[in-house]
Amino acid sequence: MQIYYSQQYRLKSVLLKILVLSCLLAIFMPIKQAKAEGQLTIYCSVQYRVCEKMTQIFGEKYHVDAKFVRNSTGSTLSKIKAESTKPQGDIWYGGTLEPHFQAAELGLLYPYRSPKQAETIPQLKSLLAKHGDYTSIGYMIVLGMGVNTEKFKQLGIKEYPKCWKDLLDPKFKDQVQMPDPRSSGTGYTFIATLVQLFGEDEAFRYLKALHKNISNYAQSGTETTNLSRGDAAVTVGFIHSYETEKEKGAPVKAILPCEGDSYSLGGISIIKGARNLKNAKLFMDWALSAEAQEIPWREERMYQIPTNIYAKASPNSVDPKTLHLINFDFDRFGSDEEGKRLTKKWLDEVKLK
């Protein structure tokens, strides 16, 4: 007996076989990883763990083979200068803003005004209007002092310094550290802050007097860990770093000096001659987003203040509303000529005297 199948039945049977075959292929065929859409080399001047996390998340999100090279702000600027004829990096992320402006002045940056600048807090709009063709602003950091409370007990010092001028007290002899301004953006910001607060002549009289109490002009990033270890009683640095050390259990207290709150801003700039220009632009756009600006504190407990209007700041960050910010002159202190002049003056008249 012959059985005749309807055309509709035969079609359903064929479709069922195709579906089963597709499922088997999906199960037994090897799964291919998404290929990286190009590469990116990031010159990074924030904390190592933040560099690592930002690079990792960006690479995974956009399937980019991203890597980073971590150096202090001053050292990164020197590296970009040295490589100007054959750039090795694509984008410079982080570090104080003034060296980024110096790099732009020297023709070392590629012009790119990210559309994400529109989400920057209103207080920075005028600065971006002037300098945003080359550099965007990814975060704010506030300058201050950190003290090691256990070290103070050991030294028998009962009162913590309240003002910058308190650091000149002879009781702090060999107990103060500040970053070396030749390699550290933090150190340069400190000098620029003193010049703005006191005037240049008075600022350098202060630095000469402070030199008597300095035990070490630290390499960038080490002043905070040196304080945590008790190598110094007081160090000059950015407040968010002290908060991170305190959260780790170190006997560290952050202090905002009475003379007024100085600050710096974290720059993001594309390097002229970048070999991976498309991905460099993509990274800048992403780094300016609310999502990216929350990564340092959510993932790594680093408490710089976001500059994106939609980004949430950590409860452990300094509240900008409570600050008495000085009117920091980024145009003057972001000049390459002024930066070299002040650093050389410090070297000749303070450190080498």
UniProtKB/TrEMBL annotation:
One of its GO terms (molecular function) is thiamine pyrophosphate binding. InterPro entries: Ferric-bd. The keyword Signal applies. Coiled coil: none annotated. Keywords: Signal. GO terms for biological process: thiamine transport. It holds the Pfam family SBP_bac_6. It comes from the Bacteria. Gene3D superfamilies: Periplasmic binding protein-like II. GO terms for cellular component: outer membrane-bounded periplasmic space. This is 2-aminoethylphosphonate ABC transporter substrate-binding protein. It comes from Gallibacterium anatis. The lineage of its organism: Bacteria, Pseudomonadati, Pseudomonadota, Gammaproteobacteria, Pasteurellales.
